[in-house]
């Protein structure tokens, strides 16, 4: 029951004995997931920036150790398991490369927050809310094209509305709290966490923005090394 409260019900393979490589390789979902993950890590500027930032923070990410392709509940695309420092990728729900890019980026933001701060994921809903706000804001979840694909249109302030709504939705998916509790937690930390743009330094509204942020991050690193 306690684990259910922590969202593990959405990731039923978390507590199972790992399958052998031979067994896993026979499943198309698993192969496709691994191939899409490799493509994201090799080519996506959002993910590349986060991987480099984590490495600089002393938290090097290894593909075989820190990513796991698994079958999940139909309502989720991925998750960050802080108990194992592992990102779960839902191989039965991620069917397109663009979706894989967003899920990996979203979960890497949680991993980055876990690396740089003492986040109490399980007992402090405000901590969880802050990381969910940052993940929705910086991962591309709320880009104009993604919102149009969801048939959601807005004018001024729509990005903030999307970030708030998706942060609340994420909290409700993994914690047994009331909607009012989730909303209160998000609203109390929203301004601070929405304006925390590390390690991007800007809100990357597109892949072009993410590439610029990655270049700026690399330049910042070289500048700091010369001080």
From TrEMBL:
Entry GO MF terms: metal ion binding; metalloendopeptidase activity
GO CC terms, sorted: mitochondrion
Keyword Metal-binding: yes
EC number of this enzyme: 3.4.24.-
EC category name: hydrolase
Keywords: Hydrolase, Metal-binding, Metalloprotease, Protease
Gene Ontology biological-process entries: mitochondrial protein processing; mitochondrial proton-transporting ATP synthase complex assembly
Protein family per UniProt: Belongs to the peptidase M76 family.
The name this protein goes by in its record: Mitochondrial inner membrane protease ATP23
